[in-house]
Amino acid sequence: MGIEGIGARALRKEDKRFITGRGRYVDDIRLHGMTYAAFVRSPYAHAKVSAIDTAPALAMPGVVAVLTGKELVDDKIGNLICGWMIHSRDGSPMKMGAWPAMAPETVRFVGQAVAVVIAETRNQARDAAEAVVVTYEELPAVVDMREAVASGAPQLHPEAPGNVIFDWTLGDEAATDAAFKAAANVVSLDITNNRLAPNAIEPRAAIAEYDPAEEHFTLYTTSQNPHVARLVLSAFYNIAQEHKLRVIAPDVGGGFGSKIFIYPEEMVALWAAKKTGRPVKWTADRTESFLTDAHGRDHLTRAEMAFDKDNRITGLRVKTHANLGAYMSLFSSSVPTYLYATLLSGQYDIPNIFAEVISVYTNTAPVDAYRGAGRPEASFVVERLMETAARQLKVDPTELRRKNFITQFPHQTPVIMAYDIGDFNASLDAAMKAIDYAGFAARKAKAKSEGRLRGIGVSCYIEACGIAPSKAVGSLGAGVGLWESAEVRVNPVGTIEVLTGSHSHGQGHETAFAQVVAGRLGISIDQVQIVHGDTDKVQFGMGTYGSRSAAVGLSAIVKAMEKVEAKAKKIVAHQLEASENDIVIEEGQFKVTGTDKAIALPMVALAAYTAHNLPDGMEPGLKESAFYDPTNFTFPAGAYICEVEVDADTGKTSFVNFVAADDFGRLINPMIVEGQVHGGLAQGIGQALLEHAVYDENGQLLTASFMDYAMPRAEDLPSFNIQHTMTECPGNPLGVKGCGEAGAIGASAAVINAITDAIGNNDLAMPASPDRVWHAIHG
Fold first, then answer.
1. pLDDT band at 3 (very low <50, low <70, confident <90, very high)
2. What is the DSSP string of 530-582?
3. What pTM, to 2 d.p., does this model score?
């Protein structure tokens, strides 16, 4: 395999255009006759829309149209949907309230659109939007989920009495209760998983164009899964027939899950383009992003862990209230259920687990998948409990974990997941060695003698990635399959185009995917082009989320490559009068083993297309496709250890060291993997120390700008020490597991465990701001 194949630290091909300003994002696109959209948004968290006067806006310069929610409903544009069905413990289906793309009658969160202005310029549209007069009848709002389920609380949707969407359970309640009754020790903890705003570097954007001659729509959008967007827009929202809608997701500047979903603005842009006969463009400003992008996390949890006399875990009991905001977003129901409770076993052999999840409507922005999506919440619960237990039982946190690690694989957990492979001791060993865990006690004592508070925290996470197989997720309520597709085209001159249903928005697919293809053929990655993000070019695919790109998307490419290679070997064997079994691929040539006979890839490709000398019955060409549906999830896992110092006078936390030891299976490009880990760690640390989307009691978002929402900066982060261990995944042809979300899953617990160790107070909620830490120290 060439130096640019699997395992090489090849520089990212796509970075050349990004760092030279030649990326092509939605906002860079200009169409002839393009207009601009500006939305009129509710300043209230809950209100009736009594009247909308559009006349003043229509009279303003450059205004093409002012469209309202009533017109949208009159045109029979469908409501937004949630695509994963969850049933409550009594068997009743989840209570999904109606979510129109623009509210015709009732608004339920600040920022919900009630009208849109279409104008010749962006500034004209914004000015005219200010002139639209909306008369509201303000209604009582509720933003705290505990208050939302209390008697007499304001009701958001008639479909959901008491604001409860579902009351769902997983596990054996009776067996778990019995384990607690027999326990020698029980550890309990109340845990808040704070609400986050996703903050991709590129705000959401959409450009819609309608061709009346062909009755055809084109949508340019910041999507992580353009084919799914087209499917939902056509099948459920009554925008266009699927074959009359093209969705293009060009360069996308980050997603973190927030760009998986269909949003109202994309629907309205398509509808408005047909209504006005002009292309319509909308790009969010940062405040709109804070107000309307799907938020993440926001759980309140009561968790209990039972131990026997030998400190082995015998049971875990969890009750979580999950805030889903004002409406159910596309995959929102799956996040606090099958992406959360199924990972509550962590890395530990826990025989009895019972989880109850109550999801709640509040007058806040919808909540859906955000980097990790349920897995960070589960890991935080388990790892905070483990650290708390170690302190209560007066044992070393690493030894308590080792005593309870799963060591035999495959392992069936009591909450659905069947772990295929892993070596949790190896990751913990690597992390402890890298941070000099054995020497920490001396470092802590020295810091104490100098008046400084030093602490260390451990977090051993596991996640489920490459969510599949489709049959399994379908049985759990998913509305779509979770396979992936690929097509490999070898052109007549030997260059290669790979069309993938995965989508890259920062992951480095154009490099990593090319490395696998180039390595198999022994050619340069410059001969391989990766094509994605256009429903007219690429066969139907499921997109990128849940760390699935390599495990599922790249596996589909490998399956297509196997077909291409098999056909190419038949051609070579025919021309060289050899057996197919004797043909090997080396350094860009198809060779006959043990001879000097060979044909270079370009000549094989040319022979396939000239078709002058092919085996009898063989079709011309060298192009193959494949669909890949995994047999199981993949299970990346690792151990993170964080060492901090806390200033007792100010409450400020400073990092001494941060080690991340991960098992991602086989690494395609270690440099890209480490970059993904760095980004995930930054987001996990950001949640632990800084980030929090906060609403006041009236439903006003108090953190709707970077002046108030604290994002991690370079000075807030340590220089990470990255370690790798490896157990190859047996469930896909590459042995890969996924790496994109790991840092965000494991980091938060490590940080909070370290701070609470330093200050000697276990009662500390995220984000651990200096003010919170100071009060935890001084009361």
1. low
2. EE-SBTTTS-----S-TT-IIIIIIHHHHHHHHHHHHHHHHHHHHHHT--GGG
3. 0.97
